[in-house]
Amino acid sequence: QWSQSYPVDATRGYSERCLNELAKVIPGLIGGSADLASSNKVYLKGHGDFCLPGCPWGRNIRYGVREHAMAGISNGISLHGSGLIPFAATFLVFSDYMKNAMRLAALSGAQVIYILTHDSIGLGEDGPTHQPVEQLAALRAIPRLLVLRPADGRETSGAYKVALSHRHGPSVIALSRQKVEANVSGTSTAGVEKGGYIVSDNSPDDGVPDLILIGTGSELSICEKSAEVLRTSGWKVRVVSLVCWQIFEDQPMEYKDSVLPPPVTRRISVEAGSPLGWHEYVGREGVVLGVRDFGASGAYLDTFKKFGFTEENLTQIAETLLRCR
């Protein structure tokens, strides 16, 4: 449960709480990080470190800086058939080292949960070597792999629910380093289970919006803030959270059309990553606000501003789109 008074944190922080609560009731939950446990926030408190022969009951595995080995070992744990559910954590950008093992997990139907933090240029001062750009697009291209990018505490809870229910395949949960609200207005765990859903809309019940803003992760709150500004000017604006493309695509066409009505062609997607694939949802007449180059070193707010991920820039793009026809 995420109360309105819950301290503002990064989604990796909300993930830490989810993971530790789940460990209390799922004894088979076991995993670790590629020497980044404190950054990924995946240490299961009170459950010890796995080692042989000293502590075979430990549930935290210290893999070292070996992402590929970690992913391969996780496949073995999952496919062993002992009821264990492995998780493997690192920075999203380092998923490149794991890709062939992740692909094999999808091909083999292995239930592995990949907890990939520092999920955008919003990670800040580490700079472009650590800031993912193309990784989300590459992971979304792997068949049978669910890629979830939650926006807040509620959606993070929903992402874990989906990943644990996805018994015959792997899941990615992409999480922010920078802080976001625990409860973005209108988000829900139930919405995550559909992959995409309406967060807010000021259109009449029987009407259609003038504009749809589609966001994921930490950028969803930017969409919501921009929508509030546009609504004060009389525009009907819908905000959609597209947490998981794969799950959304599996929904009935009637549901998908209710979220993204075909007649509404003025759409803007907002995600701090590669724009590849987003025209599937915004169409030829829509706008994709993405990252088309490597990132930059700097505080996350400065980096977001440099690449246009601000309420002001999104509002300006939206106003231009709304008035151009």
TrEMBL record:
One of its GO terms (cellular component) is cytosol. Its cofactor is Mg(2+); thiamine diphosphate. Gene3D superfamilies: 3.40.50.920, 3.40.50.970. Transmembrane segments: none annotated. Its EC number is 2.2.1.1. The keyword Metal-binding applies. SUPFAM superfamilies: Thiamin diphosphate-binding fold (THDP-binding) (SSF52518), TK C-terminal domain-like (SSF52922). InterPro entries: THDP-binding, Transketo_C/PFOR_II, Transketolase-like_C_2, Transketolase-like_Pyr-bd, Transketolase_BS, Transketolase_fam. Pfam families: Transket_pyr (PF02779), Transketolase_C_1 (PF22613). GO terms for biological process: pentose-phosphate shunt. Residues 9-182 form the Transketolase-like pyrimidine-binding domain. Homodimer. This is transketolase. It comes from Nymphaea colorata (pocket water lily).
